[in-house]
Amino acid sequence: MPTWILAVFAALALIAPAHADGIAEKVTLCASCHGENGVPVDAKIPVIWGQNAGYLYIELRDFKRGARASEVMAPVVADMSRDEMMALAEYFSKKPWPNLAQKPADAATAEHAQAVANSAQCSQCHLAGFLGASLVPRVSDQGYDYLLTTLEAFRSGARANNAWMTDLMKAYSEADIKALAAYLAGL
Ligand code: HEC
Ligand code: HEC
Question: What is the residue with the minimal CA distance to atom 14 of ligand 2?
Answer without folding.
Answer: 136
